[in-house]
Design goal:
- The chain is α+β, with helices and mostly antiparallel strands and 322 residues long.
- Helix content is 31%, strand content 26%.
- Strands 8-10-7-11-9-12-13 form a 7-stranded mixed sheet. Strands 3-6-4-5 form a 4-stranded mixed sheet. A two-stranded antiparallel sheet has the order 1-2.
- α2 packs parallel to α3 and α4 packs across α5.
- The longest helix is centred in the first third of the chain and has 18 residues.
- The two termini are 29 Å apart.
């Protein structure tokens, strides 16, 4: 399929957002968004590092790549509205493979009402997908990592470690593992917490971070950005029934260091905790208080309370597998 035929095959017939003035078809896209702040992010995904045909089909690759970017919007408290995708395609990936990637992208874009407004496709030696996503947030309501304050509660959405366990199963093919469908879906089809994050808009202050590299890494990013100390409670970390089949050591490795859950970790003033729980209930989002913020002049450290005492939790983010 030549480039122009392919562009026409993925071009939307109508835009889902009124702010899009011009999408695919010119040298650049145009969108207009008055009275709101624009939030934008870009991520690049490389075959053999961030995904593999061994663990996902092309549809799942497209779905998951865009899900990761949508999760970035959720972490900023933003409503995603549009995206652009650039793909480097090796010769051993067929036209059908490429079509399936775009079908996966469009499936989650439709779910979250995003418009595809541009991109590029070139031939190269290795499959690379680069996604730029645009979102909107009410003026001065973007959620930054440095917005934590002493006394805040630390919370997380959903359960942690499931995606890492799903990937581990795909790589090792351990037939003794149960609940594999749940774990695989958590790895291949993330559910970014956009509705929950948008529901928190009335709050003056919330710090958020999306859990792409494991809670140990993301909590440290919050602590470092705010120059405050976080204390987590190991026994409060939310765990799915599927993860309970593993040893406690393995559970904690998945939860603390496993990546790509695409849940949210954040902090909120205690006076607003009940409101957070109300929004969680309205958006069908499990939420758990897992710690507290203190000012101890530690310049951004995270400690975790275990049975044998409180220990420093190092930033040990997710290592991508090939």
């Amino acid at each position: 399929m030549n480039e122009f035929d392919f562009i026409n095959s993925i071009k939307q017939k109508a835009y889902r957002n009124h702010s899009i003035i011009k999408g695919i078809g010119d040298d650049a896209a145009v969108f207009r968004q008055p009275y709101q702040d624009i939030v934008t992010a870009v991520d690049t995904f490389v075959d053999g590092i961030h995904f593999s045909k061994k663990t996902m089909n092309p549809f799942q690759i497209g779905y998951r790549v865009l899900a990761a970017n949508i999760s970035d919007m959720a972490a900023m408290g933003a409503d995603p509205i549009s995206y652009m995708i650039s793909i480097v395609v090796p010769k051993d990936w067929s036209d059908n493979d490429l079509t399936e990637i775009y079908r996966g992208l469009n499936a989650i874009a439709l779910e979250y009402q995003l418009d595809l407004i541009g991109g590029d496709t070139v031939i190269g030696k290795q499959l690379v997908l680069s996604v730029t996503i645009n979102g909107i947030v009410p003026n001065n309501k973007a959620r930054y990592r440095n917005l934590m304050r002493p006394g805040d509660y630390i919370f997380v959405t959903g359960t942690l470690g499931d995606s890492a366990a799903g990937l581990d199963f795909l790589l090792k093919k351990n037939n003794e593992i149960e609940h594999t469908d749940f774990l695989l879906n958590r790895h291949r089809y993330p559910s970014p917490r956009v509705a929950f994050a948008k529901g928190l808009t009335p709050l003056d202050r919330v710090a958020l971070n999306d859990i792409s590299d494991g809670i140990a890494n993301e909590a440290n990013e919050l602590a470092e950005a705010s120059k405050l100390t976080i204390y987590l409670e190991e026994n409060k970390l939310p765990i799915s029934d599927a993860l309970k089949q593993f040893s406690r050591t393995k559970q904690l490795d998945y939860i603390l260091n496993g990546g790509e859950d695409f849940e949210l970790v954040g902090s909120v003033a205690p006076v607003n905790w009940n409101f957070v729980k109300e929004i969680a209930a309205k958006t069908n989002t499990p939420v758990t208080k897992i710690g507290i913020v203190k000012n101890e002049n530690s310049n951004g450290k995270v400690f975790i309370a275990k049975k044998d005492g409180t220990k420093l939790l190092e930033s040990s983010g997710f290592v991508h597998h090939n």
